[in-house]
Amino acid sequence: MPDLHELNHQTVSQYLKNHIRTVPDWPAPGVQFRDITPLLQNPKVFRVLIDAFVHRYMDPALRPDVVAGLDARGFILGSVIAYELNVGFVPVRKKGKLPFTTVQETYELEYGSATVELHTDAVKPGDRVLLIDDLIATGGTMMAGKKLLEKLGAVVTEGAAIVDLPELGGSQKLIAAGLPLFTLLDFAGH
To answer: Where is the Phosphoribosyltransferase domain (predicted)?
Structure first.
């Protein structure tokens, strides 16, 4: 029989999964888009979602100094989690959105590339940072965020997301690069 923590995690995961909308053939034919907006619209579901992360990161061994959120849905999660943990929040933005001095990291997409930026004063050397986004697909955005934070001397203690799409290989790539990951659920084989 699974322990209470594991049983609770499975129950929370299934509860959240039941509130994720799958939109077929968007943004392109053959893509099953996992829409997290229903998780945010229902106050009870949103609280369960946020609490699942907050309870994990209240543990002194996992507690960050700063939460960094990836543009754009990582902002929604990250800012609320940072508030609940009583730590700062920093946005990792798409290129051209930050007004102060920045560092940049460019990464490859399926077709072309993208660049993310971070203010140079967003973190201090040695800061323990939780890096968060809504889902992990190819892992490119999270990897770029990790590299940016490390350029400024921070230590990314964990990458976190609601959803892992393991068939796209991102989580394996991030783990291979030395980033511990925590996700609440996955859509393997769907």
So the answer is: 39-162
